[in-house]
Amino acid sequence: MAGSISERRDQLSAERERVWVQLAELGVGRDSYDEGFADTGQVTAERGEVEALAGSLRDTLSDIDAALSKFDAGTYGQCEECGGPISEARLEAAPAARTCIECASKRR
Ligand SMILES: [Zn+2]
Q1: 4, 20, 28, 100 - which has most CB atoms within 10 Å?
Q2: 5-28+40-107: which CATH number, 3.90.1150.10, 3.40.190.80, 1.20.120.910, 1.10.357.10?
């Protein structure tokens, strides 16, 4: 059945795997990262990009983890702000969404 809860959970687990792989590919957290790179401005700029990307990947990961824990709590699909339901279309586009579209747009 399309759009079922268990399907969404599988989708999130798969997404989580992908994010982990991306983080691993960036070499984030590896001590050897600094060694072997010349200290040039270009490398510094590239590093900044890598760190920005790693930061957004970690944010994604924490959203996914939060969403996955909601399956266990039985609150998946529920807005963290107002407690109302998050629309199916929004979950389709962003399975790890924490808030409904109304609260998300109010925030900015
Ligand atoms: Zn809401």
Answers
A1: 100
A2: 1.20.120.910
By CB atoms closer than 10 A (0-12, 13-18, 19+), residue 83 is: exposed
Whole-number Å distance, alpha carbon 107 to ligand 1 midpoint, is: 10
Gap between the Cα atoms of 93 and 16, Å rounded: 15
* C-alpha 6 to ligand 1 mean position (Å): 23
Tell me, yes or no, if the pTM score tops 0.85. Answer: no
